[in-house]
Write a structure and sequence with these properties.
The chain has two domains: 201 residues, Medium-chain alcohol dehydrogenases, catalytic domain (Quinone Oxidoreductase, Chain A, domain 1, Alpha-Beta Complex); 131 residues, NAD(P)-binding Rossmann-like Domain (Rossmann fold). It contains eleven helices and 17 strands. Strands 3, 4, 5, 8, 9, 16 and 17 form a seven-stranded mixed beta sheet that branches. The chain has a six-stranded parallel beta sheet with strand order 12-11-10-13-14-15. A two-stranded antiparallel sheet has the order 1-2. Helix 4 packs across helix 5. The two termini are 20 Å apart.
Length: 349
């Protein structure tokens, strides 16, 4: 199937229109027209080869909402016209212990990412959601709950599940004390989801000016990390800290805020961190952990939860031809809180 998208053709080039071939429909595949695609920091990192190893041209995008246009002969769960979603992965081995336990993101053979990964059968490099069409095997297609706003749902497929998964893994529920560090695309979803799970939520920020926004998103409290007295008073005050900061930074100010057996979970930064002092961990059996999206079953659980609770990201809709401007704005944190591309604009672009 020939389709059109926007691709980075080198690590220094702006994204531009790109015509390419999607694979032929296999018996287990679902074909869809992409309606909306969220813009993630990972898209920007990949376009610029910040993490290394990327090949070009590459079509980013892994927060995808679409409409089914065709199904393979072996597909049983979807039909033409269904509203569906696809996140950060489109395949895995489906037979290892992790895949069998619903944790395909930790597939022992490596998951196939929505873009930038070799297809498990053909070897061709996957292309993402900044495009008009997508073909994905049925097991990695998600169903959108009735009533969930399609135009705002796309960021749930990465920002939503990236924060929901550690909240569930570390047992957040009524009475939990949760702190969120950073209030961008990931952070604002962590606030909404933790509040909906019943936690008491505090936002930790260097900037006092963000307090109003934090409370508007549902947070119960606001802690200024540069206020030494306030930080000291908050010691041992949290069960879980979700760290969404997407750059190298210092964890040492946050570790004493955890209670005994508390966990700080990193979901933002991919790469090195500042040197860490272990004393707070040793003295309180505190943990530093990481988390990578969620499995397909957990992602569907998250979507259904958001449908029941009417949880949606705060989005700014853009046209496809505004993607390079959006990347520049995202790089300087000038978005509240997630860009979403309206793919109806792609024909015009």
């Amino acid at each position: 199937m020939q389709t059109i998208g926007y691709a980075a053709k080198s690590s220094t080039a702006p994204l531009e229109p790109y015509t390419f071939e999607r694979r032929a429909l296999r018996p287990e595949d679902v074909a869809m027209e992409i309606l909306y695609c969220g813009v993630c920091h990972s898209d920007l990192h990949t376009a610029r080869n910040d993490w290394g190893g990327d090949t070009y041209p590459i079509v980013p995008g892994h927060e995808i909402v679409g409409r089914v246009t065709e199904v393979g002969a072996a597909v049983t769960d979807y039909k033409v016209g269904d509203h569906v979603a696809v996140g950060c992965m489109v395949d895995s081995c489906l037979h290892c212990d992790q895949c069998n336990s619903g944790e395909e993101q930790y597939c022992r053979e490596g998951m196939t990412q929505t873009y930038g990964s070799p297809d498990r059968q053909s070897g061709e490099i996957t292309m993402g959601g900044y495009a008009k069409h997508l073909i994905v095997r049925e097991e990695f297609v998600l169903r959108l709950p009735e009533g969930l706003d399609l135009a705002r749902a796309a960021p749930l497929l990465c920002a939503g599940i990236t924060t929901y998964s550690p909240l569930r893994t570390f047992g957040v529920g009524p009475g939990s004390r949760v702190a969120v560090v950073g209030m961008g695309g990931l952070g604002h979803m962590a606030i909404k989801l933790a509040v909906a799970l019943g936690a008491h939520v505090t936002v930790i920020s260097r900037s006092p000016s963000k307090e109003g926004d934090a409370l508007e998103l549902g947070a119960h409290a606001f802690l200024i990390s540069s206020d030494a007295d306030a930080m000291a008073q908050a010691a041992s005050g949290f069960d879980v800290i979700i760290d969404t900061v997407p750059v190298k930074h210092d964890l040492n100010p946050y570790l004493p805020l955890l209670d005994v057996d508390g966990t700080l979970c990193i979901v933002g930064q991919v790469g090195p961190m500042d040197e860490m002092v272990t004393v707070p961990m040793l003295m309180g059996r505190r943990r530093v952990a990481g988390s990578l999206i969620g499995g397909i079953a957990e992602t569907q659980e998250m979507l259904d939860f958001c449908g029941r609770m009417n949880i949606l990201p705060e989005c700014e809709m853009i046209r496809m031809d505004q993607i390079n401007e959006a990347f520049e704005r995202m790089d300087r944190a000038d978005v509240r809180y997630r860009f979403v591309i309206d793919m109806a604009s792609l024909d015009a672009a």
